[in-house]
């Protein structure tokens, strides 16, 4: 550490440039991770808020809520307990005078079932009739207030906002909670159709009908349209940035080590153990990466403070800390490349000539 | 009792037809308190002689004894430790660590050799003797050639080794500085009871040596 710190202190410009590279890489990784998390949360926030373990869909729906319809006939013989609830889903466009059109997900609920019962409101009350709705706070951010009315798709009657709830997002669209009757109206369906799905907090819940199929929550989430592809894209981007940071650190340290081989040969001739020099290189990498990370974290915190709420970013500290730890490990691995040079340095090379 | 003794040292480089016999049956001994000079032209084998004496290069045959300890019976780690504790090197290009101040050059030794280094008072005396007290907070790039050489000498002496091996310590110095370094090495050998071995082609150092060996085509002979 002694050699590492002294060298960084003496070669300020050189090491500032390396730290600047690490700052940019770490900042980019933090922002991308937060964006990936934010988008992932916007896909699943509503599902997460229901706290479900199972979902039952029509077996021909290809694990897609919007393609699933459950009929009375299919549900005959299935008894719902306190841990089960019907969900009716339909994609809608919300419009109201003075507001831009918003794409949203309408979720019809039965008032006496757990999803509706557990719905947490930031203001207002739960729907008491088919023309009342509770909407995500994104609508509040767009200027909607309690008591405002909105049209959903081309339904003739308008719906009144009676409550706001937060973190109600499904497939990156804000959720509008209403009744199952309203869902049927929006779908133009009769009472034969009961719901789009049954959700359950019991991981052993099974549907007895051969036309229905149950899935774990994770299976269902993984099949949300675009969810896996989007997450894979971000994961690859973050992984590539990690690899790039490893290469940057390894290349810089390699070049710096090559420049210092003459000094290392002298120190080896004087009996300075190779492990001292290896330790200096690794600790130098750790100091550089941690310095870069600290500044990168600061920039990320500033970004978090000024980023508009409409940008889907989630700054999850444990996950970002894990990413930071990954970068430190990457730095250590990068520092191991020049270690071979140090171990092979020949003290004889500095004598004579 | 010799501080360092080389007995029947032979060293070859290369294989088969390109094999070169660099050192022929070298016998050499240096005593504590003496400045020994090994003089020879370029290519005579004096650098190879120094690396073998310092435990940096294994001879093909013969033995090297430091304080009666056979150097090449030790493994690499033990030889590293022996070099750190008993041998100080002064090199032609000074080779000070560029990002450490003069004072910090000694601090590095403190980190790897916890005991037996000069005390702060002894270091102050040494710096005074070498006339580099004022340079303690300067970096090598801020020093002249002569100053760097004196710092390199101080660094070699800092771990209080029994033996100092110097490789062409006056190669880059003018005549006045050569005299100064020659006098200094002779004084240090005597005042600190060190065995100082200097390999050089600089005949101007002859006046300060207690014993002089000449090395030519890998063969050594004692002249004084």
Automatic annotation (TrEMBL), chain B:
<feature type="domain" description="ABC transporter">
    <location>
        <begin position="4"/>
        <end position="224"/>
    </location>
</feature>
<dbReference type="InterPro" id="IPR017871">
    <property type="entry name" value="ABC_transporter-like_CS"/>
</dbReference>
<keyword id="KW-0067">ATP-binding</keyword>
<dbReference type="InterPro" id="IPR017911">
    <property type="entry name" value="MacB-like_ATP-bd"/>
</dbReference>
<keyword id="KW-0472">Membrane</keyword>
<dbReference type="InterPro" id="IPR003439">
    <property type="entry name" value="ABC_transporter-like_ATP-bd"/>
</dbReference>
<comment type="function">
    <text>Part of the ABC transporter complex hrt involved in hemin import. Responsible for energy coupling to the transport system.</text>
</comment>
<comment type="similarity">
    <text>Belongs to the ABC transporter superfamily. HrtA family.</text>
</comment>
<comment type="subunit">
    <text>The complex is composed of two ATP-binding proteins (HrtA), two transmembrane proteins (HrtB) and a solute-binding protein.</text>
</comment>
<keyword id="KW-1003">Cell membrane</keyword>
<keyword id="KW-0813">Transport</keyword>
<dbReference type="GO" id="GO:0005524">
    <property type="term" value="F:ATP binding"/>
</dbReference>
<dbReference type="InterPro" id="IPR027417">
    <property type="entry name" value="P-loop_NTPase"/>
</dbReference>
<dbReference type="Pfam" id="PF00005">
    <property type="entry name" value="ABC_tran"/>
</dbReference>
<keyword id="KW-0547">Nucleotide-binding</keyword>
<dbReference type="InterPro" id="IPR015854">
    <property type="entry name" value="ABC_transpr_LolD-like"/>
</dbReference>
<dbReference type="InterPro" id="IPR003593">
    <property type="entry name" value="AAA+_ATPase"/>
</dbReference>
<protein>
    <recommendedName>
        <fullName>Putative hemin import ATP-binding protein HrtA</fullName>
    </recommendedName>
</protein>
């Amino acid at each position: 550490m002694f050699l590492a710190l002294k060298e960084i202190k003496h070669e300020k410009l050189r090491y500032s440039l390396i730290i600047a590279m690490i700052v940019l890489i770490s900042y980019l990784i933090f922002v991308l991770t937060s964006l990936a998390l934010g988008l992932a949360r916007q896909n699943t926030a509503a599902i997460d808020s229901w706290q479900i373990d199972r979902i039952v869909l029509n077996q021909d729906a290809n694990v897609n809520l919007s393609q699933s319809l459950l009929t009375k006939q299919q549900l005959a013989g299935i008894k719902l307990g306190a841990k089960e609830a019907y969900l009716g889903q339909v994609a809608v466009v919300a419009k109201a005078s003075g507001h831009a059109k918003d794409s949203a997900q309408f979720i019809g609920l039965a008032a006496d079932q757990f999803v509706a019962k557990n719905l947490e409101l930031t203001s207002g009350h739960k729907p008491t009739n088919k023309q009342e709705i509770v909407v995500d706070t994104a609508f509040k951010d767009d200027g909607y207030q309690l008591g405002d009315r909105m049209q959903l798709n081309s339904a003739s009657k308008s719906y009144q906002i009676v409550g706001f709830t937060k973190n109600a997002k499904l497939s990156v669209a804000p959720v509008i909670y209403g009744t199952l009757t309203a869902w049927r109206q929006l779908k133009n369906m009769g009472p034969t159709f009961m719901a789009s799905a049954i959700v359950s907090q019991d991981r052993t819940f099974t549907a007895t009908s051969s036309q229905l199929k149950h899935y774990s929550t994770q299976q269902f989430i993984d099949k949300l349209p675009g969810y896996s592809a989007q997450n894979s894209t971000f994961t690859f981007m973050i992984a590539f940035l990690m690899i790039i940071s490893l290469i940057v650190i390894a290349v810089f340290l390699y070049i710096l080590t090559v420049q210092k081989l003459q000094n290392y040969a002298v120190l080896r001739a004087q009996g300075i153990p190779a492990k001292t020099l290896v330790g200096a290189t690794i600790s130098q990498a750790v100091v550089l990466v941690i310095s870069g990370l600290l500044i990168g974290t600061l920039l990320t915190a500033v970004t978090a403070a000024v980023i508009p709420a409409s940008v889907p970013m989630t700054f999850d500290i444990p996950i970002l800390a894990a990413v930071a730890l990954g970068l430190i490990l990457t730095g250590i691995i990068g520092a191991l490349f020049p270690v071979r040079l140090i171990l092979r340095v020949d003290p004889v090379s500095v004598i004579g000539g | 009792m010799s501080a360092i003794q080389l007995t029947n040292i032979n060293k070859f480089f290369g294989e088969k037809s390109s094999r070169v016999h660099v050192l022929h049956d070298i016998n050499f001994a240096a005593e504590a308190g003496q400045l020994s000079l090994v003089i020879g032209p370029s290519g005579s084998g004096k650098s190879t002689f120094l690396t073998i004496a310092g435990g940096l290069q294994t001879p093909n045959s013969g033995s090297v004894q430091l304080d009666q300890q056979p150097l090449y019976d030790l493994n690499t780690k033990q030889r590293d430790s022996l070099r750190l504790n008993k041998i100080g090197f002064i090199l032609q290009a000074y080779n000070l660590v560029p990002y450490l101040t003069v004072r910090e050059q000694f601090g590095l030794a403190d980190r790897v050799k916890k005991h037996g280094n000069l005390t702060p008072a002894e270091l102050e005396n040494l710096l005074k003797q070498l006339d580099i007290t004022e340079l303690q907070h300067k970096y090598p790039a801020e020093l002249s050639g002569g100053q760097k050489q004196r710092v390199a000498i101080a660094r070699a002496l800092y771990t209080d080794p029994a033996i100092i091996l110097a490789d062409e310590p006056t190669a880059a110095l003018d005549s006045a500085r050569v005299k100064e370094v020659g006098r200094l090495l002779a004084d240090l050998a005597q005042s600190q009871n060190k065995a100082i071995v200097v390999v050089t082609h600089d005949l101007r150092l002859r006046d300060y040596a207690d014993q002089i060996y000449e090395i030519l085509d890998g063969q050594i002979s004692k002249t004084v």
